[in-house]
Each structure stands twice: as structure tokens, then as C-alpha cells.
Amino acid sequence: MNSTTKTILAAAAIGAALLFYLSYFVVDQKHKALVLRFGDIDRVVEEPGLYFKVPFADTVTLIDNRIMIWENNKRPVQDVASQVYIVDAFTLARIKDARRFRETLGADMQQAEQRVGARLDAALRQTYGRRSFDAALSSDRAAMMREIRDQLREEADGLGIEIVDVRVRRTDLSDNVLEQTYERMKSERNALAQDIRSQGESTKTRMNAETDRTVTEKLAQAKKEAEILRGQGDAERNKVFAEAFEQDPEFFAFYRSMQAYRKALGGDGTTMVLSPNSEFFRYFGDRQPAAPGAPAAPVPAAPAQPAQ
Length: 308
Known about the structure:
The protein is an alpha+beta fold. The protein has seven helices and eight strands, in the order αβββββββααααβαα. The chain has helices spanning 3-21, 98-105, 109-128, 133-136, 140-157, 175-247, 249-265; strands at 24-27, 31-37, 40-45, 49-52, 58-64, 68-78, 84-95, 161-173. It has a three-stranded antiparallel sheet, covered by helices on one side. It has a three-stranded antiparallel sheet with strand order 6-7-8. The longest helix is centred in the last third of the chain and has 73 residues, at 175-247. It starts with a helix and ends in a 43-residue tail after the last helix.
């Protein structure tokens, strides 16, 4: 075999290898494939494997078959009270119909994300616009996400996209609404504190009044009982004095005089100007006691005691 033949065979082998290389393509589990013949869709390959195409006439476009996460953060929405809130949401989507996806969006994933994001904004505004902010934070939150998802599916189905789920990650007050809400909460708490303080003052006043009344009643009762006891003591004292006087009037007069001397002369610096013959000094000097049967001399009165 001459060199020319070898060259032709080698060229033919290379051409065959090149033709074979250009005639097959592989689809893995993560993708679908669109086979385009002169720019038009010839067929859609959805199962993984090895496939063949017409070289130079067919081109293959791979489309992601996985679930994609498209985030839509810091979206301003208004509730039924026209207050503005900031919402962070994300969409779980997958290309369901590759043919329609190619026909409507040119198989452009970035354009698909933009179209779905714009529809999500409208669904968020529509859903939040029918509810208050409290509803978005309560058990109504799950129903709101389902409602947004259903609205989004109507738009996505026409693009060949399946909306798996929509989730609202965060709902926050805007700066202006946050300040207003803070001031309102502050006013409410101040009013509540003032009400509690007023109730406390009322309770304090009532308890003080009850305590004062109780103290007054107890003092009055104690004074009453003291007066009764004092009267009983005076009566008992007078009784004892009367009995002592009946037993020995002279000794009783002497005893009473001694008590009068001690009270009148017992203090320091006491000065009394009296006649030595005064009846007050009856038991001083050489006076003889009165004869039996004679009337007893008057007993000097003891100084009056201050009331206790």
C-alpha cells in the first residue's frame, strides 16, 4: 500500500471519527435536551442516555431539569390599611414543558426568572392588599402562600414552567411604619402602666384608710378598756382605804400623813412656808395622840396626782 492510499485511509478514518463525534450527544439525569434542526424543534429528549443527531443539521440545547430556587427579596407591599411592608420570598420552580419553554422564552433561564419574579410581585401585592399585617403573621400565613403559589402557576404554565412552591421567608415593617408602630406600642404601654399605677394608688389609699380606721378603733377600744380598768382600780383602792380606815382610823390618818409628807417634801429644792403649829405638821413635835373616842384630827390632803 503506497503512501497516498494510507493518507486517504487516515483521512477517511479521521473524517469518520469526526462524523461519529458530531452525530451523538449524551443527556444526564440533571437535564432535558431539545434537538433543533435548522433552528426548529425536531424532538425533545427527557430521559437520560446516549442519543444521535444529524451532523451539521441538528443542534442540541440542554435545559436544566432540577428544581431551581429563585429568590425575590425586599419586595415592598401594602396591606389593607395601606401600610408598607418589606417581604422576602422565594420560588421553587422546574421546567415542565421544554418545547413551550423554548417557544415562549427562547430557553433563556434568566428571562424565565425575571418573568416569574414580576408575576410574583403582583401576586404578593394582591394577596397582602386584602389582609392586615397581623394576618400575615398568624395562621393565615400558610393560606397566603398557597394563594400566591396558585396565582403564579397560572402565569408559569403558559411558559412551560412548573411552580413547585412559594415561600414567604420574612415580612418586616418598613422604616416609617416601624417607627409609627413603635410609637403606638410605646403609647399603649405607657397607658397600661399608668392604669396599673392608678390602680395601685387606689389600692394603697384604700388600704391606708382601712389601716387608719382599724388603728383608731383599736385605740378607742384600748382606751375604753383602760378607763374601765382604771375605774375598777380606783374603786378597789377606795374600798381598801375604807376598810383600813374602819379598822384603825388613827393609823390610817398617820399613814396618809406620811404619804403626804413624802409627796410634798420628797423633791429636791422644795420650799414650804407654814406655821409650825400647822395641822400639816401634826405628827411632828410633842403632840399627844387624841384620846380614845375623840374625833380624829383632819388628815392633811395629799397633793393631787396628775392623771395617767
